[in-house]
Amino acid sequence: MANQPVFTPVKEMTYTQAVAELESILRMMQSEDCDIDQLAAYTRRATELLKDCRSRLTATDEELRSILADLEK
What we know:
Layout: H1 15-30, H2 39-72
Helix pairs in contact: 1-2
């Protein structure tokens, strides 16, 4: 069995780094050179990255709405 890929913990990554890794995983999964033995690990990682990015976007949206609401007062 192949070694599992080693990933940087998501919480240690910037949003930009997480998106870049997602794009890299997507390119790898779409290529003919995709390592089927690693597919499940990359799918789990992509899911983890997507959840974190969505959470960050939601938090930023809420913060911006709060800031703009304060400006309107």
